[in-house]
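Protocol step 4 of 6.
Sequence for Beta-barrel porin 2 (Jannaschia seohaensis) entered exactly as in the expression construct, tag removed. Do not edit the line below.
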Amino acid sequence: MRDGGRARALRRGAGLALSGAAMLGAGLGLAQERGAAPNPELRFDLGIGLEQDDDGAGLHTDLGATYATRTRTQDLTFSLGTAVALDGEGLNENAFLPTARLSYGFDNGDTLLKLAGSYRVRRVEGIAFVLDAGADGSEGGLDELEAVDDDGRLETLGAGIDLALNRRAPIGLELGAEVIDRNYRDTDDPDLDDTRSVSLDAALRLTPRPGLDFRLTAARSTATDAGELDSETETTTLGARVSWAATPATRVDLSLAHSEREEARNRIAIVGGALVATGGRETVTNDGLVWRGEIVQARPNGTRALRFSRTLVAGGAVARLRLARALELPGGGALELAIGAAHFEGGDTTPLLSLSYAAAPLPGDSLRVTLERMAETDGDDQEVARTRARLSYERALTPVSQLTLSAGLARVDVLDGFEPDRTTVTLGAAYTRDLTPDWALSARIDHAAARDEGGETERDSRVSLTLGRSFSFRP
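Step 5 output, structure tokens:
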């Protein structure tokens, strides 16, 4: 990543979560909880927001419409929307950020069908911008924790289908497919690579008696990454899985398979702390047994579990083992704790940790604390450990107003690779008030800081104000 533009990316990064639908949703959370939704429902959302940071003032406008209908066996949701983001660059093609989502579900007890599709355009800028996204457009875990030094757009197109047949019979069939395309437009940053993933899976289910399921499984996936590696990875897996309710309080889920992974990519070298293609192609293959298991036992005050897995990665495999305990606390609180270790084949062993605590210290309050440490390989085939900590506190000041405080820490430790370790810290405070049953006002202040090991710390503060409206009716 180029250092020259990082401060600018950081200054804009804190406002990414306030653009598009996220910005509108922050101002409408209280108003939308009132009343039951009609069926069928036609909902309109609109919002306008102002932001101020060191780069100057910016304006965000959001428009959206959603149609939803539900019956005893089917549900359908379709939404269209766009965000218009204006800043010092004026009105250009990067200012328009359209979205479209479609989901359909059918379930009559014997047959289950789920369809999902999405199209989304987002602006490219900010800390932790690169996200994994599902076929329905939802955002998952972080793929990279870094500020990108660029301007442009990310177009994401996804589609998926899941089908289960003969669910009530002793023999059934389960099929699934998913495709996700991510394409960057008008960007130059080397960390922003066009990607495409396609996955297919099938399972033949055998249920000799209630509480015991056997599955013969097959899966194939293809993933392409147009970065310096210009890689194409194909993975084929054949195996079996058993799900067993051993006792009324104990559930066992085990899967064992043989997996083959083949990656074709450019020959590369590390020059100046970055990957550089040296010419020619190479193929990296590995195969072996992979497994995943979970034993969960219900306790009077929660659950306890043992989880273990082995998966193939570039040049080897990674095995993980975790012990977990979930507790229901007095007063309605909850605590979940998991500890374990991950071992990279022929490499490092690193500890794993997951902690989640939720409670209501006072009536109308909500406190949530999460801590997680994971081990994996990133897009450049580096072995990394990711640590994330989050704290959020919500307090209802009045029946129509709410205060939210948040803090976050994210760190990437490169165990075997060439990039420096990275640390990101965020702080935020927001005030939301319902002006009417349809209108809501939200004010927010954010501070962010990011630092590469051995580098300088970049900081940013921003203030935003959002006014939004959401209303629905039966067409």
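Step 6, annotate. Residues 36-187 form one domain.
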